[in-house]
Design goal:
The longest helix is centred in the first third of the chain and has 12 residues. This protein has 372 residues and is mostly beta strands. The chain contains one helix and 22 strands.
Length: 372
């Protein structure tokens, strides 16, 4: 719709604006209850009534929300955007996050608690910078936080940290997960108790540098008539700290059973993988990146292949689009982010939530983040 397109245009140019609200971090281990729906005092004026939902928190910038229900409570594991002062675009240089907070709420629409700093860059021995989108999992009462960061050589790896509480604080393992690379880890627990780690992201996420099986500095993208780069999946070990197998490619196919091509930017994978299961089907959803959709595909196995079905979420305010899908008391919800609080700065975002509807035929009803 026209309003959506005009907001997207605003977002793409908003990086030229100076930063707005301050970063009032909670102290490590300190839980803070926050009222929802507020806006930055110095952000460019945006009509907040045009959005289907409001930010869950406004005292810090948050993005990439991975949501789960643990012990009957909703926990959200976002990245924590800051205005780092970096002006170069580079390889996502402006996204220079340095810690993670954990948010939680009793129910959708309820008060949101910020449990404080759960993990910091300084507490990760192998990492040098850029704590991007994380996810979490639980097994036998122990909680695991999976996160990407650049190592000392500037190569993205995936790390894991553990805690006895879903809210943290988390203690990082001394080394990244062996065999891991790229960004955007997410974990799916299947009905048999197996856990699968999904990951990958092109451009700044470096997936295109692993085409040969090992890291190279050169960016290699497929030709327009070649299959798009594939996200990765690997089952986790019983201890949840290592991969149980070599990562596999995830095939995303069109309705004719052919792999999506690299030129098919409205449907091919870019970043932000997520898996959920509904009525026996596996739903693999992801961001298309430069075309700003959250797309989805379905299959009969957590490994795929997955057949593209449509769009979960239309473009939001800001360049990035990142999500998670979780069932809460028999209903499904989409957690996502946009840049409402900062007036469109794509590196200063805020997390939101809205209901997600599965149609009777198993398709997902497309969400538009803006009201008519």
């Amino acid at each position: 719709m026209n309003f959506s397109k005009s907001l997207l245009t605003l977002a793409l140019g908003a990086a030229l604006l100076s930063s707005g609200c301050g970063d009032k971090n909670a102290q490590p281990g300190t839980a803070t209850t926050i009222s929802s729906a507020a806006s930055s005092e110095s952000a460019p004026a945006i009509d907040t009534t045009k959005f289907i939902g409001q930010p869950l928190v406004s005292h810090i910038y948050t993005a990439d929300p991975s949501a789960h229900v643990f012990n009957g409570r909703i926990y959200i594991y976002p990245s924590h955007d800051i205005d780092s002062g970096i002006t170069s675009d580079g390889e996502g240089d402006k996204f220079d996050m340095k810690d993670y907070h954990v948010l939680s709420m009793e129910k959708i629409g309820g008060e949101v608690t910020d449990h404080g700093v759960a993990l910091t860059l300084e507490d990760i021995p192998w990492a040098s910078r850029q704590l991007w989108a994380p996810d979490a999992a639980e097994k036998e009462g122990k909680f695991f936080l999976y996160f990407p960061a650049k190592d000392k050589d500037g190569i993205f790896r995936i790390g894991v940290a553990t805690s006895d509480s879903p809210s943290g604080p988390f203690a990082a393992e001394p080394n990244p997960i062996e065999g891991s690379f790229s960004i955007d880890p997410s974990v799916f627990k299947d009905d048999d108790g197996s856990h699968y780690l999904y990951f990958g992201g092109i451009w700044g996420g470096q997936l295109q540098r692993w085409v040969s099986g090992s890291y190279v500095e050169e960016d290699k993208y497929p030709a327009s008539n070649e299959p798009a780069l594939s996200p990765k999946v690997a089952r986790l070990n019983d201890n949840m700290l290592q991969l149980a197998e070599t990562p596999r490619d995830i095939q995303i196919l069109d309705n004719a059973g052919k792999p999506l091509l690299g030129s098919d930017t409205n449907r091919r994978f870019f970043e932000g993988a997520w898996l959920h299961k509904f009525n026996g089907k596996y739903y693999f959803s992801y961001s298309t990146g430069d075309t700003h959709y959250i797309a989805y595909a379905t299959g009969d196995s957590p490994y795929g292949p997955f057949t593209h079905q449509g769009i979960v979420l239309m473009p939001v305010l800001g360049w990035t689009n990142h999500h998670s899908i979780v069932e809460v008391e028999g209903k499904w919800f989409l957690f996502y982010h946009d840049s409402q609080l900062s007036g469109g700065k794509t590196y200063l975002r805020n997390v939101k939530v809205t209901e997600l509807i599965h149609n009777d035929d198993g398709t997902i009803r497309t969400v538009d983040a803006y009201l008519d």
